[in-house]
Write a structure and sequence with these properties.
Layout: E1 2-6, E2 9-16, H1 21-34, E3 39-49, H2 51-66, E4 71-74, H3 78-86, E5 94-95
Parallel strand pairs: 2-3, 3-4, 4-5
Antiparallel strand pairs: 1-2
Helix pairs in contact: 1-2
InterPro entries: MlaB-like_STAS (IPR058548), STAS_dom (IPR002645), STAS_dom_sf (IPR036513)
Domain STAS: 1-102
Protein name: Anti-sigma factor antagonist
């Protein structure tokens, strides 16, 4: 898992699973504490995700909300969305809507 930053956007690349949760959690919490703005997690390059990773995002979302901010997931692919629904955590996130294509 590679993590890059673009302002308040955290861009994830690779497999987001139990092996990478510590690094992502640390990056998210640093962003939540360091910025007085909303945080976006871009997941366009996330190949796979597991329940442990989704729980990290759910807790970070609650933490952001309690601080008066939003954590938004952007560019969630079909496999990420599927896992959100299978894990019953889909209601825990604000997922940015994708623009309709013609």
């Amino acid at each position: 898992m590679d993590i890059t930053f673009d302002g308040t956007t955290l861009v994830l690349h690779g497999d987001f699973d139990v092996r990478s949760t510590f690094a992502v959690r640390t990056a998210l919490y640093e962003r939540l504490e360091g910025f007085e703005q909303d945080i976006v997690v871009d997941m366009a390059d996330v190949d796979t995700i597991d329940v442990t990773a989704l729980r990290v995002l759910a807790v970070a979302t609650r933490r952001a909300t309690s601080a008066g901010h939003h954590l938004t997931l952007r560019n969630c692919g079909p496999s990420v969305r599927r896992m959100m629904h299978l894990s019953r955590l889909a209601h825990s996130f604000y997922v940015e809507r994708e623009a309709a294509t013609a």
